[in-house]
Amino acid sequence: EVALAMAAKGHHIDIITRRIVDDDWPEFADTIACYPDYRNVRIVRIPCGPPRFLPKEALWPHLGAGWLDGILRFYQTRINLPDIFTAHYGDGGLVGALLYEKTGVPFTFTGHSLGAQKMDKLHILPETLAEFDGRFHFKERIMAERTAMNRAARIVTSTRQEQAEQYTHPAYHGAIDPAAADAGRFVVIPPGVNLSIFSATEKETDLPVAGRIEAALQRDIPEDRRDLPLVLVSSRLDRKKNHLGVVQAFAQNADLQAAANLALVVRGLENPLEQRHLLKSAEERAILDEIAALLDEHKLWPAVTSFPLNSQAELAAAYRAAAKRRSVFTLTAHYEPFGLAPLEAMSCGLPVVVTRNGGPAESLFEAETDTRFGVLVDPADPADIAAGLLEALSAEKWAVYRQAGIARIAGRYTWDRTAESYLQVLTAIQQQPPAPPAETLPIPPYFSNPGPETEIPLPDLEALYFTER
Q1: Residue 461 confidence (pLDDT)
Q2: Which residues contact 150 (CB under 8 A, 6 or more apart)?
Q3: Cα 289-290-292 angle, rounded to 5 deg
């Protein structure tokens, strides 16, 4: 999306990825592909290791010795190298650093999520490190991330919190100092909402989704409650998304039960709560089982419905249908790094009630003007969730949050705005090339010549992750 938005401003962009030759996936075999309406955007596919699909954790030995060389060969047959690279995740960041070493072309690095945070979430201990590292290749990932952040001209984050919470992790000490020496190398560029899909303008194609919601209400909700607004929960079934927190808020608050019905969206099942045994994921089944138990305990079944939405277009249509009922969207995740889903709902005119932990604290609140664009709640407190939902549903606040949300997206969270921000950063880098970091870390030989003699030693990761903690 950002590449297409930059192309619309007259720039030429190559999206460099891995070429895959597989009879089941012929669309990934062409070396170059183009977008019909954007001739100045190319997808460039470079061979990287074996031609078949590989898990991302298995790509490390093939990046520096294969993919890097393939990228250089591709551009050697053209007139010029790109003016600048943008690198994403640890693997892309590593190749950005290797390209910089070889060519001097600067790059930006966007980590999105970093390996050390994943290790934290897995609660890895010294005695389990080798086991987890064998599965996820953390030593390669963290060494690559350190290499990328150490050499990047700019580090792009989606929020200020991402800079403060991810890059200050002890595993990255010595590679980057986001709080002091390297603070100026960070820039916040949030992603955008696809306004061609997520907008408040009704479409004829909305009718089937509106009919599906109405059918679910007819099936699950007594007639005297069917006209109530909905509290729409449409995040994936995952413990950290905290679906139970919303159900507990309903269970504990009679005013909320009287004001709205709860609507759970689960992809692929016509009647998710009743068909939960059909889910393949044990975790997803367990979450819906716990929700059903709460509904049994508190006799909440007459206030709850569930239905599937199977595409972004259907999701947007559901948001618009829910907005016609003066409904609200909620996401009460324990932590949400950025939170694009609430922004998509806001763009469709649906007020949002969202976790205060993570990116939404920035996207839904502007400290400089003390302006709120939605309601932020404590996901660990069902009473606070209920109070936030009642505020957003109230007659005096619903329209205010609806208009504030639409304006917030149009003014800050569009792909065109993202592209403008990127272009400002890239132009600044070209006009004033970055000075080398105060301490340039050596690139581990493994990445340019992998083999037993250059293997990254496990004690390096153990020292980085545990000793400094």
Answers
A1: 84
A2: 97, 175, 176, 437, 439, 440, 441
A3: 65
Residue recorded with tokens 């016509």: 270
How many C-beta atoms lie closer than 10 Å to residue 21's C-beta? 14
Token readout for 313 is 């277009």
More confidently predicted of 283 and 434: 283
CA distance 418 to 6: 9
Rounded CA gap, 425 and 6, in Å?
13
For 252-268, what is each residue's pLDDT tens digit?
Answer: 999 999 999 999 999 98
* 19 bridge partner residues: 47
Q: Chain-wide mean pLDDT for the chain?
A: 93
| Burial class of residue 281, CB neighbours in 10 A (0-12, 13-18, 19+) | exposed
Residues of 25-63 as b/e, b for ≥16 C-beta within 10 angstroms? eeebeeeeeeeeeeebbbbbbbbbbeeeeeeeeebbbbb
CA 171 – CA 390 distance, rounded (Å): 42
CA distance 242 to 379: 7
With the CA atoms of 198, 200, 205 and 211 taken in that order, what torsion angle do they form, in degrees rounded to the nearest 10? 110
Rounded CA gap, 464 and 31, in Å? 39
Return the beta strands (E) in 20-142 as ranges.
Answer: 32-35, 38-47, 85-88, 107-110
Residue 113: how many other CB atoms lie within 10 Å: 13
Cα–Cα distance, 142 to 377 (Å, whole number): 33
Q: Which two tokens stand for residue 138?
A: 């953390």
Classify strands 38-47 and 32-35 as parallel, antiparallel or unpaired: antiparallel
